[in-house]
Amino acid sequence: MAGLLNIKGERKDIIGRDFLAGIVVSSLLFLLAAAFPFSGSFLFFLAPLPIIFYYSKLGRLLGLLMVVGTLSGVVAALKAMGSGEYAPLFGLLGFLGVAIAEVLRRKFSIEQAILASLAAMSIPVLSLIAYSIFRTGEAPWWIAEPYLVQTILENAKLYGEMGVPAEQISLIRDNAPKIARLFINILPALSLISVALCIWLNMLATRAIFYRQSLYFPDFGDLARWKAPEKLVWIVIGSGGTLLIPNDTAFYVGLNVLLICLFVYLLQGLAIVSYFFRTRNIPILLRSIFYALLIFQQALVLLVIALGLFDLWFDFRKFNKTMNGSTA
User: Fold this and answer.
1) CA distances from residue 282 to 12, 95, 270, 277, 286 in whole angstroms, order as listed
2) Intra-chain end-to-end CA distance of the chain, in Å
3) Where are the membrane-spanning stretches (predicted)?
4) pLDDT tens-digit profile of 41-94?
5) Helix, strand counts (H, E) of the chain
6) CA dihedral defined by 23, 24, 29, 30, rounded to 10 degrees?
7) Domains in the chain and their CATH numbers?
């Protein structure tokens, strides 16, 4: 009897430590992202990760209490720091962490898991948009247009200090309103891509952590062999064709669809790159350098997208030996 009580006491201590650790780690990651929004922008994408982990370890009830405690403390700290504008974003990221944790309890494929997480995330996002429109009578993205123009002008000034030619700086300044409107018109695609990328990164990181901690994680199979549906290429062709229509609505609808399709092919291209890294036993350091370059070199991103797109015809992975285990 005493031994049973000791076991229960030890389990309560472990749960208590996990609960406090979840609040501390999640809060610290949120606050670091808010304190260093530019240098620490990658932290925003991984902010849901500790919530996914501790929510899964603690269970639904304690996990939700941990998330509420985290967000309450973070919001209070943000107000004290004068960064209260980040509160809605961190609220959404906290919700996304819970959504991903719930999705990972199911036996979904990687596509189903990402789509289910996106569907769950659409609920608070659309609710916030509806509330903003009801309160102000105007869509939030058009309210933000003047601030976006100002940001573009400030970036142009920064580029000038970095030695960018004066002609390019003048071109950016003269077209700042047009650039801002372009960003606003492709905001649906950019938002969807950003959330999907956040979900994808967190699922990959969660898989590695869960395997080490012996926690359940759905079998997504060999992700290095993942391919987009072949019929997707017809959507690419169709959306590309709409760009030739002399109508702004058709143009921007087509551009949004095209950007989303290219993001899917980017993921396929990354799967191909990962496949070759594994089969050629490329050192971890060189792999890390390549993935870091993707963040700063847009030309390399386009190359990876092309790799994913042309894989439909060339099937770059068919000549290589079969890989063991699940990879990413």
Assistant:
1) 44, 37, 15, 5, 7
2) 47
3) 20-49, 61-80, 86-104, 113-134, 182-205, 257-277, 289-314
4) 678 898 999 999 999 999 999 999 999 999 999 999 988 888 788 888 899 999
5) 15, 0
6) 50
7) 1-153+161-217 (1.10.1760), 222-323 (no CATH)
